[in-house]
Design goal:
With 297 residues, the protein is of the alpha+beta class. Helices cover 46% and strands 18% of the residues. The chain has 13 helices and 11 strands. It has a 4-stranded antiparallel β-sheet with strand order 6-5-4-11, sandwiched between helices.
């Protein structure tokens, strides 16, 4: 359980707002329905959501917003991808100075706030809002027509090309196992990065980025997958989700194309050549490689 969530549960018990029996029932509900314990407390009727948000706001110093009283800014809303907005129940509200205030159902969860901050690519201040209000607003904003327009951003040929590469990758043997890129045999990395599916995937990543006018490409390795994001007009946009086992080979392939030493994984590097996709050159010149959790080229 998130440390802050533990603090919240402890505060609820301290104030006598939930009993041990209610908490145990909520934990059982959370496990069977795949929701957070504090959400389960509301769903099982142990506490009202308004009261829960009030306690959380007082405990962590986070304001509570009434979304019905705040006009939304379409430009700010467009900064967060629909998938991220729905996953974290996050909705940009307004800008104050250099910060964007974002309504979230679990605004006290630092990891969720960091994910939204990374996705938007700008400094944010979280505020609390009821889940149902957030879901209703998101349903209003991301209508079927908008969703269709987003999905049509990639042409059928482009989507089919990537799906074909992924299908070949899924049928291939595990690439890189659990070893960290740069720790294993260099020749093995070279063989993996030259495999046909990896070549197709990397080419597709760069071609899409160039077509969309992206200034940066970010790869965020997670437990089971790798999320590729493009920075377009200053905002990060999710582009594609790839199998986690492909991460090392994709990184090595990019280094090979850029003339980098693939055996070095712990130091920043700059490409010796800006040639990436044949006749096409990356607009910003030589791509740097930074050894962080979310790699950037």
């Amino acid at each position: 359980m998130n440390p802050r969530t533990s603090d919240l549960i402890r505060e609820l018990r301290h104030q006598g707002l939930v009993t041990e029996a209610q908490l145990e029932a909520a934990r059982t509900h959370a496990g069977s329905h795949g929701v957070a314990v504090e959400e389960a407390l509301v769903e099982t009727g142990a506490i009202g959501e308004d009261r829960l948000l009030q306690i959380a706001g007082d405990l962590y110093g986070i304001p509570v917003a009434d979304l019905d009283q705040i006009p939304l800014d379409d430009h700010l809303v467009s900064l967060v991808p629909e998938r991220t907005a729905r996953r974290y129940l996050a909705l940009p509200l307004y800008r104050k100075g250099h910060e964007i205030y974002v309504a979230m159902a679990q605004a006290w969860d630092v990891s969720r706030v960091d994910e939204v901050r990374f996705s938007i690519g700008r400094s944010i201040q979280p505020v609390l809002a009821p889940r149902e209000q957030l879901r209703e607003k998101l349903d209003e904003l991301f209508t079927p027509d908008i969703q269709g327009a987003e999905k049509s951003a990639a042409s059928p040929e482009e989507t089919g090309f990537l799906e074909d590469a992924l299908s070949h990758l899924e049928g291939a043997e595990s690439m890189g196992g659990e070893s960290q890129e740069g720790d294993g045999d260099t020749q093995q990395l070279l063989r993996e990065s030259s495999a046909s599916p990896i070549v197709k995937i990397v080419n597709d990543i760069f071609i899409r980025a160039i077509h969309k006018g992206a200034s940066d490409i970010h790869m965020e390795p997670q437990e089971a997958n790798v999320i590729v994001r493009y920075r377009v007009d200053g905002a990060l946009r999710e582009a594609v989700e790839l199998p986690g086992k492909a991460h090392n080979a994709i990184v090595s392939r990019i280094k090979v194309l850029a003339g980098m030493d693939i055996s070095v994984a712990r130091r920043p590097k700059t490409a010796a050549s800006s040639s990436i996709t044949g006749a096409t050159r990356w607009p910003s010149g030589c791509p740097p490689c930074l050894p962080t959790g979310a790699r950037r080229w």
